[in-house]
């Protein structure tokens, strides 16, 4: 009797084991000879409709599936893509000549109709279409005019110097496919003209793209590109080490050595478009005087900050613009490190005994932000500005800055998606703008002129004039641009970009 | 349904309503979702439009009633980040987490019960010492550390198991997360088994069983263990909630696509609808598990059935 019960128990235990084995399946690794490159990102894409997302991880997938009329090359210079050429007709009209014979992966043709449909959607001119998340970028568009099947004009309400930049960010989606269900399916089953098509997407797991052999620019050299979300830094690095993934972004300076030490891995650097500067609140009585603001710039030892705080992961920029920006000034003016002169200027401005000040900074939002502010406070103390660092959560920081309520000084690293100085200074310098605590009529005038001019040469000239005046009468303590760091498996030949896009068309497996 | 179970059922409902209020209020206290959702330099007017769209301009009690009305029908609103119904996102991730929890409990019990029994039977022996020291470690090691160590040693150094992901749900991908998540549970279960076994083994009826010449294995399994099970099951019920908490960390470390990871991501993004849906679904799960355990009590210990 008891023995039988024991048998039953044994049977149950064994049965449970068998069920478990089957239920969970045994991991079988399938070998295939296709080339496959795996990219790990911190989060997964939200939607693959190019106009219905706002973040990099989605964009990195999208740029493999779709094409735009024009694209930025690795030097951030705008080049032809689906449009073989373009011409600025006048200050409010740009004409694009489209490439012929291109088809979407579902067979629909690409032509002037498609271009019109796409820009009307984002400009809010398409009846019945939901407002897209990038609508604010295209609100200057008044009309899209079809000249013939392969010629299109985009007409804006007023001159928009960033129009080409926005056109380069507008990926083309097909008409018939999206019309059927008002763009619903596009979010999960994208159709584009790009080098890859979506094969599968398991939420929270792998997103697999396969190469389009008949891609119009030539078949991609990597057969399968896989995107995986891995939230933990240390897990991403571990996966990189064992070859589970090939490319990881946002490597921390602390981890450079660890990755570099592996034979099969390398660390790649690229100058970022994110520029850090110390906002000076010229609306406060202490900072109103130009001499005080110049003194702050003479007090900052930027090369030392780059070397000691950023551990080399930053590079000095002239005022607010790295070399890749439209409006960059080839004369590269820098303040020299001169604490004596800073003290003298402060005394002349009426602060012979120095002053107290506060530096507001978000905590952990930008690379080594709090450490940088503490070092800056130390440098300012040497010339008599006794600065206190107030490090807060980004939510608090955002709220305070948006309410236009900041102390004398504030540290922020400003991103710029358009590689155009105008984009930065129209929000951070132009008097009356959301993040400007500064007023200089000459600067304002040049910013306004730049905003009315789409001719690249003239547009740049106004920006350079503004930058020079901003150098003389500084709204910021000028610092550095960040550097982006990637960990890459050496078997993949791939180069990172300044705009944080991870683009594998053109990359190959060695 | 007996009076006991009936009372427990009513209590469960009250708990769930309480949780719904707490969830709702806490998520309203952690900051403005609008400022996280839009670009840093979005003008104030656009923010107001969005606030209105999300119903955040209404008084909080009204917002709660709207929330409750939807929640009863399983409608927690649309995810701010994914623009999909929040409940769908949560339900998509539930199977992965359930699988992790079941696997974790399974391995924890398989190790814990024998360790507990042996430690109790051979009290103060070397087995007891080893068993209790290792459970002590299991209880005190933080799971994020254990997870990272396992990744470094098992995954990177020996390359025995895949480091992260779901891999279509195969066993290999679940072993390390389950070990990490289960270390604490295993240790707790082993200690509880040991102490309740010790208590039971001193009872008169065990002596009687032995005295009538029953084989020791039968004494232990049939007479001692069955009576020692009640506290173990109680602890299991309580630990389902703990496990869910642990899953948040473990899933994040191993990029395991379950509810815990979704929870962390949604909290970062102030994705209220998803956070609320997760907390409600998980709470209902935990409350239901505890109710289930109340039912199991009545099966294991018939005395409870006739209680009052």
Q: Estimate the helix proportion of chain B, in percent.
A: over 70%
Q: Biggest interface in this structure? A: A-B, 42 and 52 residues
Total number of β-strand segments of chain B?
A: 0
Using the CA coordinates, give the radius of gyration of chain B: 24 Å
In round numbers, the mean pLDDT of chain A is 90
Which bin fits the share of residues in helices of chain A?
25-40%
What does this structure look like?
The complex is a heterodimer of chains A (510) and B (308). Chain A is built from 15 helices and 19 strands. Chain A has 510 residues and is an alpha+beta fold. In chain A, strands 1, 8, 9, 10, 11, 12, 13, 14, 15, 16 and 17 form an 11-stranded mixed beta sheet that branches. A 4-stranded antiparallel beta sheet of chain A has the order 4-5-7-6, with helices on one face. Chain A has a two-stranded antiparallel ribbon with strand order 2-3. Mean pLDDT of chain A is 90; it is low at 21-31. Chain B has helices at 3-29, 33-37, 44-53, 60-72, 86-121, 126-140, 143-157, 171-201, 204-211, 216-253, 259-268, 272-300, 302-305. Chain B is globular and about 85 Å long. Chain B starts with a helix and ends with a helix. At the A-B interface, helix 1, helix 6 and helix 12 of A face helix 5, helix 7, helix 8, helix 10 and helix 11 of B.
Brief sketch in words of this structure:
The complex is a heterodimer of chains A (510) and B (308). Chain A is α+β, with helices and mostly antiparallel strands. Chain A is 31% helix and 23% strand.
Key words describing this protein structure:
heterodimer, A: 510 residues, alpha+beta, 11-stranded mixed beta sheet, 4-stranded antiparallel beta sheet, globular, B: 308 residues, mainly alpha, 13 helices
Topology:
The complex is a heterodimer of chains A (510) and B (308).
Chain A: H1 2-24, E1 36-41, H2 56-65, E2 70-72, E3 78-80, E4 83-90, E5 93-98, H3 112-122, E6 141-148, E7 151-156, H4 163-168, H5 175-179, E8 196-201, E9 207-211, E10 224-229, H6 233-242, E11 247-248, H7 256-260, E12 265-280, H8 290-299, H9 302-309, E13 314-316, H10 339-348, E14 355-362, H11 369-382, E15 385-392, H12 394-402, E16 409-414, H13 421-428, H14 441-451, H15 456-472, E17 476-489, E18 492-493, E19 508-509
Chain B: H1 3-29, H2 33-37, H3 44-53, H4 60-72, H5 86-121, H6 126-140, H7 143-157, H8 171-201, H9 204-211, H10 216-253, H11 259-268, H12 272-300, H13 302-305
């Amino acid at each position: 009797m008891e023995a039988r019960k024991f048998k039953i128990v044994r049977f149950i235990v064994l049965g449970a084991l068998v069920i478990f084995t089957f239920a969970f399946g045994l991991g079988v690794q399938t070998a295939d000879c296709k080339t496959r490159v795996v990219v790990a990102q911190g989060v997964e894409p939200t939607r693959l409709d190019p106009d219905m997302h706002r973040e990099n991880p989605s964009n990195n997938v999208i740029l493999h599936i779709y094409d735009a009329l024009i694209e930025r090359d690795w030097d951030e210079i705008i080049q032809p893509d689906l449009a073989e050429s373009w011409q600025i007709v006048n200050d409010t009209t740009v004409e694009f000549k489209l490439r012929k014979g291109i088809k979407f992966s579902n067979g629909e043709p690409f032509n002037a109709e498609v271009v019109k449909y796409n820009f009307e959607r984002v400009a809010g001119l398409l009846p019945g279409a939901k407002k897209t998340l990038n609508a604010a970028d295209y609100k200057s568009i008044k009309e899209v005019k079809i000249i013939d099947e392969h010629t299109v004009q985009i007409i804006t309400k007023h001159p928009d110097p960033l129009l080409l930049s926005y056109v380069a960010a507008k990926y083309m989606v097909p008409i018939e496919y999206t019309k059927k269900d008002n763009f619903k399916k596009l979010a999960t089953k994208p159709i584009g003209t790009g080098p890859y098509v979506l094969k599968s997407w398991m939420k929270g797991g792998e997103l697999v793209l396969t190469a389009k052999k008949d891609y119009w620019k030539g078949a991609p050299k990597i057969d399968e590109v896989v995107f995986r979300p891995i939230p933990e830094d240390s897990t991403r690095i571990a996966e990189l080490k064992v070859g589970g993934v090939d490319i990881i972004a946002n490597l921390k300076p602390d981890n450079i050595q660890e990755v570099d030490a592996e034979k099969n891995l390398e660390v790649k650097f690229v100058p970022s478009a994110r520029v850090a500067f110390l906002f000076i609140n010229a609306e406060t009585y202490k900072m109103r005087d130009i001499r005080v603001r110049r003194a702050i710039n003479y007090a900052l030892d930027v090369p030392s900050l780059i070397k000691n705080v950023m551990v080399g992961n930053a590079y000095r920029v002239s005022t607010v613009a790295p070399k890749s920006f439209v409006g960059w000034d080839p004369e590269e003016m820098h303040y020299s490190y001169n604490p004596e002169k800073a003290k003298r200027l402060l005394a002349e401005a009426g602060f012979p005994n120095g002053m107290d000040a506060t530096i507001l900074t978000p905590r952990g939002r930008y690379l080594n932000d709090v450490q940088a502010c503490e070092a800056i406070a130390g440098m300012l103390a040497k010339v008599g500005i006794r600065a206190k660092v107030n490090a807060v959560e980004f939510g608090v920081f955002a709220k305070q800055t948006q309410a236009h309520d900041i102390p004398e000084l504030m540290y922020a690293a400003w991103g710029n998606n358009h590689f155009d100085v105008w984009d930065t200074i129209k929000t951070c310098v132009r008097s009356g703008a959301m993040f400007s605590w500064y007023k200089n009529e000459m600067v304002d005038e040049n910013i306004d002129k730049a905003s009315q001019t789409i001719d690249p040469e003239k547009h740049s000239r106004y920006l350079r004039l503004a930058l020079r005046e901003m150098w003389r009468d500084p709204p910021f303590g000028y610092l550095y641009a960040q550097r982006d760091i990637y960990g890459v498996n050496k078997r993949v030949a791939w180069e990172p970009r300044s705009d944080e896009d991870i683009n594998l068309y053109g990359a190959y497996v060695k | 349904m007996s009076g006991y179970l009936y009372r427990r059922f009513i209590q469960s409902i009250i708990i769930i309503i309480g949780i719904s209020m707490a969830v709702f209020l806490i998520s309203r206290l952690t900051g403005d979702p609008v400022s996280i959702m839009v670009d840093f330099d979005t003008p104030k007017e656009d923010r107001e439009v969005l606030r209105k769209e999300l119903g955040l301009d209404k008084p909080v009690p009204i917002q709660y009633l709207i929330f409750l009305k939807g929640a009863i029908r399983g409608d927690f609103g649309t995810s701010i980040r994914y623009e999909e119904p929040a409940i769908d996102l949560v339900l998509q991730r539930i199977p992965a987490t359930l699988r992790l929890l079941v696997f974790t409990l399974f391995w924890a019990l398989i190790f814990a019960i024998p360790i507990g029994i042996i430690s109790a039977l051979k009290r103060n022996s070397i087995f007891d010492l080893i068993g209790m020291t290792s459970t002590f470690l299991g209880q005190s090691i933080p799971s994020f550390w254990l997870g990272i160590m396992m990744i470094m040693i098992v995954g990177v150094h020996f390359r025995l198991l895949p480091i992260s992901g779901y891999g279509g749900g195969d066993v290999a991908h679940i072993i390390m997360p389950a070990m990490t998540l289960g270390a604490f549970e295993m240790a707790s279960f082993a200690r509880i088994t040991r102490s309740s076994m010790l208590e039971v083994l001193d009872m008169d009826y065990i002596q009687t069983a032995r005295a009538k010449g029953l084989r020791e294995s039968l004494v232990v399994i049939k007479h001692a263990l069955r009576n020692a099970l009640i506290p173990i099951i109680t602890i299991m019920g309580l630990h389902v909630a703990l496990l869910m908490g642990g899953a948040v960390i473990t899933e994040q470390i191993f990029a395991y696509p379950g509810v815990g990871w979704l929870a962390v991501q949604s909290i970062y993004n102030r994705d209220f609808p998803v956070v609320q849906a997760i907390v409600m679904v998980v709470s209902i799960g935990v409350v239901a598990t505890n109710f289930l355990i109340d039912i199991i009590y009545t099966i294991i210990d018939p005395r409870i059935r006739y209680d009052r």
